[in-house]
From TrEMBL:
Sequence ranges assigned to domain SAM-dependent MTase RsmB/NOP-type in this UniProt record: 163-431
MF (Gene Ontology): methyltransferase activity
Organism this protein belongs to: Rhodanobacter hydrolyticus
Family recorded in the similarity comment: Belongs to the class I-like SAM-binding methyltransferase superfamily. RsmB/NOP family.
Active-site residues, record numbering mapped to chain: C373 (nucleophile)
Protein name: 16S rRNA (cytosine(967)-C(5))-methyltransferase
Amino acid sequence: MTDTRALAAKSLADIALHGASLREAMDRHAQKLPDPRDRALLMALVSDGARWWPRFDAALDRLLERPLRSKEPAVHALLVLGLVQLEVLELADYAAVAATVEAVRALKRPQLAGLVNAVLRRWQRERVTHLAALGAKPETRHAHPRWLAEAIARDWPAQADAIMAADNREPPLMLRANRRRSDRDSLIERLRLDGQAAEPHAWLTDAVVLPHSTDVTRLPGFAEGLFAVQDGAAQIAADLADVRDGQRVLDACAAPGGKACHLLERANVALTALEFEPKRTERIRENLTRLHLQARVIVGDAGQPSAWWDGQAFDRILIDAPCSATGVLRRRPDVRLHRRADDISALAAQQRRILEALWPLLAPGGRLLYITCSLLRAENEAVVAPFLAMHADAHAVQFTLPAGQAAAEGWQILPGDGDLDGMYYAVLEKR
C-alpha cells in the first residue's frame, strides 16, 4: 500500500525544490492512489504544504543543524508537512508525529526516522519560541516570499496583512451555471439533492457557491455540461464585456477557456479563442465540448496579430494578460514558490506589448477588457494609464462593483474582497 504522506512529501519536494507546478506534481503522483479519499488527502497535504512552505521551511533552519534540502529533499518536505499537520491541520500531536515518522520509512529512509521524530518533538517543546520568531517577520508570519510581502505592503499598505491572511484561507468552490444548458436555480436544487451545501452568489447572476473544494467531476450535471468551475472574480468579465448577438469577439490568452465559454453562454457571438501554447488549446477545446459550445480556437501570439488575424475588426476583445498570478495565491499556492521579483518588469513589458498590438483590431465603438489576476500596480494601473495617455481614441469606462475598489483607470478586487480571488479590470472603449 502506498503511504499518502510519503507521496505528498515527494510531490511537495517536486514543487518547492524542483520547480514543478502543483498540477504537474499531482498528475505525476495522484494516479498511484486508487482511493478517491486518499487522493483528496494528498491534494490537501500538498496544497497546504506549498501554501505554508515559506513559514515552515524557515522554521527548519532553526530546528536542523544541517539542512536536508539538497541531500534529502523528500525528507525535508516531509518535515514541512509534519509541521503543517501540527500547526495548520491541527492533528493530534501523537498522530501527526507517528504518521510522519512512518512516512520516512515509506520513503525508504529508515535511518532518518529518529531525526524526524526528534525534530518534531523539539518543535513541540520549543513551539512558543519558534512561533514568536516566525511571527516577527511578515514573510514568515504570512508564508509569503519576502519580495512579495514587501511589494504588497508597498502597493497596499493599509490592506497588506488582510491580503496575505486571505491568501492562506481555504477559498470556497465557485461554479458557473451554463445558461445554455440549465438555469442557476435548477442547478442549485440538483446539487442540494446530492447533499451539497450549494448557495447562489449574492450578486453574480450565474455563480453558485459551495463551501469546500470537492471532486467536481463527481458532481451531478458535470458530464452534461450544466456548469463550469470558475471563481466569481473571473465571472465578472462577462458582465463588463456586455456581449450582444452577432458580435465578433476575440479572447486573447484564452486558456483554459473559462471566460470565452461564459461569453458564448451569454450571447450568440462569433468568438475566436487565441492561445500561445499549443498544449493549452486542448483545455479550451475540452471545455467547449463539455459545455456544448462552439468557437474558433487558434494558436498564436497575441502580440503579433499579423500572423493570425483575418483583417476583420472585433467588437469585443478580452486580454486576460499573462501576469504574476499574485491575486490567486489562495487557489494556486505553488505560485508563491515559483514567482520572482524580477518577473514583474518582464510581465509588464509583455502586457504592454499585447495591449498595443490588439488595440488596432478593435472596431470603433468597440470595447476592450484588460484583465489580470494580479494585485501589483506595476501590472495594472502602470500598464493601462500610460496606454490611455498615448492613445487619444481610447477612453476608460468608469464602473463600480460590489466588491473591491477603484484603482486609477480600472477596478481592483483584492484577495478576499467579497470572498473572491484578486483581479484587476479596466474597460476601454474606442472613440
